[in-house]
Design goal:
Pfam families: HATPase_c, HisKA, Response_reg. By secondary structure, the chain is α/β, with parallel strands linked by helices. The chain is built from 26 helices and twelve strands. The longest helix has 77 residues.
Length: 729
Amino acid sequence: MLYYRFCSLFLIFLSIFCHESPAQSNTASMAKINDLTQQACDYLDNANYEKSLEKSGIALKYAFDLKNDTLISRNYNIIAINFHELGEVDKAAFFYKKALFYAKHSNIISMRMMITSNLGNLYFFEKKMYTDGIRYYKESLKFGKDQKYAKEVAITNLNIVWSYFKIGNYSEGLPYLRYINDHQNDLKGKSDDIALNFLNGMYWGHEKDNEKAKKYFLKAISSYDKSSDEITDLLYAHLEYSKFLNNIGEFENAYKNLVIYNSIKDEITNKEKVKKASTAGFNRELDEYKRQIDKIESEKIEQYHSLRKSRIIVILFIVISLILLLLIITLIKNIRLKKKANIELLQAKEIAEEASLLKTQFISTISHELRTPLYGVVGITNMLLEEHKELSRSQHLSSLKFSARYLLSLVNDILQINKIEENKVVLENLTFNISDEITVIKNSLSFLSQKNNNKINVYVDPDIPEYLIGDKLRLAQILMNLVSNALKFTKDGEVEVKVDLSKIEGKNYFLDFLIKDNGVGIATVDQGKVFEKFVQVGRKEEDYQGTGLGLSIVKRLLGLFGSNITLESDIGQGTSFSFVIPFEHDPQKTKKIIEDIEVDLTSNDVFKILVVEDNLINQMVTKKIIEKNNYTCKVVDDGFAALEILEKEDFDLILMDINMPLMNGFETTKRIRLKGIKTPIVALTAFDKDEITDEALSSGMNDIIIKPFEPVKLFKIVNYLIHETINAG
């Protein structure tokens, strides 16, 4: 936050403020108030905001009792600084203005100077009300003519320069910059030398004197002392230097400084402490009530002495009692409101949890209902293309097949997003060869690259081991999304897929991935949106295909790997995405994984398959696929029919639908197992696999295949299970 750059200014003024007091009487009350005020200052210096608010609240109460405008202003200002530090901007502004109101009745110059300067910082850097901020800064300068305030005047001038330069008004800021350049000695001992240098750099950069600008920026950066508190100034020095380098075309150096800026910013952000002042604020409100009661009590006592034995005593007593009663009622009401709010929060939490469950159930149901007809559409389309070769060039059939697969891809993307958000995705450990995986992706996207006349260039660092261990399926999904995106938004160009070995830590090999194209590019204003769900850019000029889920899935999957994605792009200059993922390299572990892989036992044997399916279209499609592989197939409509036919005939394998009327697939499987039938049973379903795996295995099923499916995958599982059963017998 920009506010912390000026936090030190508060403490400078605070130091003056806490030690510069008007002539005081030696009364005990005045000494007590000054002691409480000093304690509030000390607690504020140590960032103990709760204690600081507590002490300043009590001091404020006593200051009102004495009607001392100076002490009232001092304590209101301390309260304001506390809220400013805690990020409560509106509360801080309210109390600063209160402090300024009472300060106008005081003759303490430093007090008015400090409060107006604090208001300048708040309005400019927190509220972004630049005109008001500069106005308060200039007001502060009116009180700083005395030489003992030279340092504060110099810092305020520095703030004004930064304010004007921030809004691009260099001509108005120049006189104040000249003043600081002439009074640099006034800044001695402060962290503003870096700030002064990079402000000079900004000015000469604006004047196109690049050599002077670069000299000042480098001076600002090189003058950083790690033992000092100048890291915030160093942060802005790198930021402004990066902007300057970018403007003069030194993009590489600009990027390096931007990286340093982000690194420092992360370091500062990590050190920030989130503090709450709710308890202290509540105590301060109670102190305000006590102050009102004390004032009434004081008035009562004074009138009691002047009007002894008068009826006024009774009236005042009744009034005080009513006020006390009203305060008690108010407190009780507030407690009840808080309890009610807590109940409402619990109810809201329950509603949110119920909504989340309903969303998951809705997505699951919709995906099942969509996959079931899509299985029929894809299957029948394939059958038509295979049985009627003359239709292979039919644009209508190709469009139908593409649309069905597009809808299936959309369903899978929505399910993937939902799984990640519900924390249901667990990374797997599989052995793989990175070059082979990228080659598969390149080949699978060859149609898309040819369509837009693009070339895919692949480079894999030869130092990367042949076999790595990790979740190759999620990695392939990440690369597939990024490369297909690059191909969609590039025409007559090139897409580069580059993998470098970044570093090695023990058995972990960190791979640096870069996917780069020279396509249309992404505007800077849109770069923050592209990773959001269902967001697409670039559709104004061309109707690109896609749902806007690809990059959102990529970002979330990389989060599972503990990685972040970096985007660099500009309109007409292409786009590059980069990220780093660690994979394990362990030859012994790789050997064991390879040994545990199921062997493909596909053979030319003729097997007898039973299909239990209630959907007539899906019956036809599944039967056609099975018989095309020279297997024999019988189809029944429901679980009872399956039990009946199994009493009469033997089958090598059963394909079981899950969602059937009368009796579902799980119950049917349980009854088959109770009869002692050991025939392998494979769930053939449109449900998501993760949702039914536990119930499927517990019911006695051997495996699960999700519709629509690739026939090759079906027959691989069928052959494996049948041979395993035969060998076990």
